[in-house]
Amino acid sequence: MENKLNNFAYIDGANLHKGIENLRWKLDYMRFRVWLTEKYGVKTAYLFLGLIPKYKELYTYLQEAGFTLIFKEVVYDGDGKPKGNCDADLVLKTVVDYYQERLEKAVIVTSDGDYASLVNFLKEKRAFLSLISPNNKCSYLLRKLNIRIVYLDTQKNKIRKEKTPDGDKTP
User: pLDDT tens-digit profile of 42-53?
Assistant: First the structure.
């Protein structure tokens, strides 16, 4: 679509994972990365994640799929659940890239309303291309911005992990 532009994707990794998990199918990250390139001209795709050492094979796979990983140190809550909130890091990276004139347009992958001010900023600067919502329940704060929103469930035939006879081989 916009393949001649230098578009960047900024992906809230936890929101993407949880959103797809709620849809009850598995995302093929390699197919997803190709789809971002072909559909939106995404040259660089930043995936923001909490760093948990036991997932190092997953991180290697994601890098091989073409994502640039940006890690946040995790802390653990009282129940031992990891928390690696990357929202501020994603916003800061996006704004820095905009002001350093590194990108033409931004694609934001989240359904979290905490990003509404970022999307509105990019829209005002004419640097916003699309919001990709991994969840069919995208925040009202994003929906009310009158922006292009693509729901990943509508694209599942293009980006879903195919089951192999031996089961899923990717991490």
Answer: 999 999 999 988
